[in-house]
Amino acid sequence: MSTAGGSNPEYVIARVRARRSALFGDEEYRKLVRMGPAEIARFMEESEYETEINALGSRFSGVDLIEYALNANMAKQFNDILDWAGGRLYDLIARYLRKFDAWNVKTVLRGIYAGSSREEVKSDLIRAGEFDDRLIERLLDATEIEEVVEILSGTMFGDGLEAAFEDYEEAGVLVPLENAVDRAFYEQLLENLVVGEEAEQYREFLEAEIDFRNARNALRIARSGADLDPADYFIEGGTLFRASEITALATSTSELVSKISDSQYGDRLSGAISDLEAADSLISFERALDSALLEYADTLGYVFPLSVTPVISYILAKEREVDNIRAIARGREAGLGPDEIEEELVIQ
Amino acid sequence: MIEAIEPLMTALQNETASSPAITEGAAAALSVGIAAFAAGYAERGIGSAAMGAIAEDESLFVNGLILTVLPETLVILALVVVFAA
């Protein structure tokens, strides 16, 4: 992992592990689900989120404040990691963080498609990726989807988006564009990984992530009963599914479930799968996928302490935390009870 | 062939027997030097990890310091050789 005899990974991973252990745990969540939005904001002010809450506190309030603070803090934390890292570690982390570029592009596309205002879209962006502020401003200024495709022509999403734009014009739905963004992201993620045991494990983790994403998409389509071809959503690179079989699998949930439980992830997900069969609940299955992925990343982090995996596992855990706090805040605002909210959380 | 080398070999043997290529003192110095080098190498990783941890939480300073200098024991053990030599 080290480049030129440096000891950068040790430094980065020690810091990341310290941050990881500072994330909210069971106990904090148990307190949080019983609080109102204002109390949550105050609670956050006394934690890692202090700077953001104070900076944004004068402009926003309630759930909005919490949400902006969460996004800002997440972006800051991930930029911090990039600041510390160097050499190959930097490269691998930067590649993974392009996930947020993909997220931002998709958010902008959806915003234009749905006719949302510039401010609304802006508040949902997470500036943790590689795009600089200027590019993001230009994306926000775009009013046509064609403009977005043009602006992105120099980036890694360029080629895929251009090809998908024709499909979009024909069909009038966003699916091909969003899919092109996802594909571009996962392709560059698996590209040029150095051969070795460590890289092999990392690749396995990425493949699991892709498999889970495919499984989730297929299940959602199967459940919604919408007339969509799951093969359009399919992301290459996983090991569990092939594009040709996913269409057939998505038509019957039971076959899909048995395929997942027979796979190498079967043991890890067995509890969730029986839930899915019994309770008919997609939500708990998706939560289980999330926590299985997190657990997988953690395990890898212990097997290869000086690789990129502990950092990835922190990134995932931080994302989960942000999702959890947002779910709590939104849930409390909507008047859900503590138990109902607790079911929504991914706690490890 | 072997007959031709034989006188040379005995000559070499005689020479090493009379004065070793590395004297006792030099061997002891070498062992300390290599041990110090190894300690430095070990401390490199621990030191940077300790700095990372301290940057996040200053109360770890003492722990970090202790862990960082632990490999120095290698050098101290190697010093024993100097007195034995």
TrEMBL record, chain A:
Top-level taxon of the source organism: Archaea
UniProt xrefs under InterPro entries: ATPase_csu/dsu_sf, ATPase_V0-cplx_csu, ATPase_V0-cplx_csu/dsu, V-ATPase_V0D/AC39_subunit, V-type_ATPase_csu/dsu, V-type_ATPase_csu/dsu_dom_3
UniProt membrane topology term: Peripheral membrane protein
Localisation per UniProt entry: Cell membrane
Keyword flag Zinc-finger: no
Main localization category: membrane
Keyword set includes Cytoplasm: no
Entry keywords, A to Z: ATP synthesis, Cell membrane, Hydrogen ion transport, Ion transport, Membrane, Transport
One family name in Pfam for this protein: vATP-synt_AC39
Function comment: Component of the A-type ATP synthase that produces ATP from ADP in the presence of a proton gradient across the membrane.
Family: Belongs to the V-ATPase V0D/AC39 subunit family.
Assembly with partners or alone: Has multiple subunits with at least A(3), B(3), C, D, E, F, H, I and proteolipid K(x).
Protein name, entry field: A-type ATP synthase subunit C
Gene source species: Haloferax larsenii
Automatic annotation (TrEMBL), chain B:
Molecular-function annotations in GO: proton transmembrane transporter activity
Record's protein name: A-type ATP synthase subunit K
Span of domain V-ATPase proteolipid subunit C-like: 27-83
Keyword Transmembrane helix: yes
Annotated source species: Haloferax elongans ATCC BAA-1513
Record's bilayer topology term: Multi-pass membrane protein
Location(s) in or outside the cell: Membrane
UniProt KW keywords: Membrane, Transmembrane, Transmembrane helix
CDD domains: ATP-synt_Vo_Ao_c_TtATPase_like (cd18181)
Top-level taxon of the source organism: Archaea
GO terms under cellular component: proton-transporting two-sector ATPase complex, proton-transporting domain
Transmembrane segments: 21-41, 61-84
Database matches in Pfam families: ATP-synt_C
Family annotation (InterPro entries): ATPase_proteolipid_c-like_dom, F/V-ATP_Csub_sf
